[in-house]
């Protein structure tokens, strides 16, 4: 669809410019006020959802919500960008890149959640958090996080990003996470590949904290074999 012609600043007089700015301010304010107070019981409206999306995009790239828009979106729904619920929401959208939502991704996720306003998303936050309690869903979110967070120019995830994502996903649930994080900080590893990433979750779920059921002949990645050796050596040092 062709875009309508816009009058340039050179074509406008002072009065025109003031009216134009005031109109833009009124429209933006009314849309934000509408989004914040929308009844959570009203039916999902795709047009309203897209209008809301456009609050967070720029005229130069109206179909992509970027980092600045993401920060404002998080502020509006009352969630820190680093909160794990944002990862769950991105998973719902099947967003491809951290810090960005395309219009298609936005519609996919929010249509599934039946959300077209701030208040509706806020009403779904507890539900999104509860999804992490289901082991099958958590595994899906965990695996998704690898491709979501890694640099798309690289096949592996850099170690700093990996540590941050592991903290987000496993930090509160895996008793050995602190030791594993210390191991990574002292290790030679600069990146984590997807096989290592997936096996870290399985290790955290299946291996006892005292390593009593760890099989040295198992098919774990070398990284985890080295972690076990490092942990046992650390315990020996503490005992001595």
Distance between the termini: 75 Å
Largest sheet: 2 strands, antiparallel
* Overall SS class: mainly alpha
Mind telling me the CATH class of the largest domain? Mainly Alpha
Rg of Cα set: 23 Å
CATH architecture identity of the largest domain? Orthogonal Bundle
Look at the structure and give the mean pLDDT. Answer: 86
Number of domains: 2
At CATH level 3, the topology of the largest domain is Recoverin, domain 1
Give helix and strand order, one letter per element, not per position: HHEHHEHHHEHHEHH
The proportion of residues forming helix, as a percent range, comes to 55-70%
What does this protein look like?
61% of the residues lie in helices and 3% in strands. The protein is mainly alpha-helical and 240 residues long. It has 2 domains: 31-132, EF-hand (Recoverin, domain 1); 152-239, Cullin, PONY binding domain (Recoverin, domain 1, Orthogonal Bundle). The protein has a two-stranded antiparallel ribbon. It has a two-stranded antiparallel sheet with strand order 3-4. Keywords: Nucleus. Its main location: nucleus. Residues 1-23 are annotated as: Disordered.
């Amino acid at each position: 669809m062709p875009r309508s012609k816009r009058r340039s600043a050179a074509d406008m007089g002072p009065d025109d410019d003031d009216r134009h700015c005031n109109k833009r301010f009124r429209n933006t304010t009314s849309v934000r006020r509408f989004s914040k107070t929308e009844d959570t019981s009203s039916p999902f409206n795709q047009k309203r959802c897209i209008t809301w999306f456009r609050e967070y995009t720029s005229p130069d790239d109206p179909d992509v919500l970027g980092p600045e828009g993401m920060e404002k979106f998080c502020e509006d729904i009352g969630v820190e960008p680093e909160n794990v619920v944002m990862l769950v929401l991105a998973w719902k959208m099947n967003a491809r890149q951290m810090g960005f939502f395309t219009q298609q991704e936005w519609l996919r996720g929010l249509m599934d959640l039946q959300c077209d306003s701030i208040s509706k998303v806020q009403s779904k936050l507890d539900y999104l958090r509860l999804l992490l309690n289901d082991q099958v869903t958590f595994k899906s979110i965990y695996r998704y996080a690898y491709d979501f967070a890694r640099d798309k120019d690289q096949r592996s995830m850099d170690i700093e990003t990996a540590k941050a994502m592991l903290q987000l996903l496993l930090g509160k649930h895996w008793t050995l996470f602190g030791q594993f994080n210390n191991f990574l900080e002292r290790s030679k590893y600069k990146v984590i590949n997807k096989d290592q990433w997936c096996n870290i979750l399985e290790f955290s779920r299946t291996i006892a904290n005292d390593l009593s059921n760890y099989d040295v002949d198992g098919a774990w990645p070398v990284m985890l074999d080295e972690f076990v050796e490092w942990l046992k050596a650390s315990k020996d040092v503490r005992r001595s």
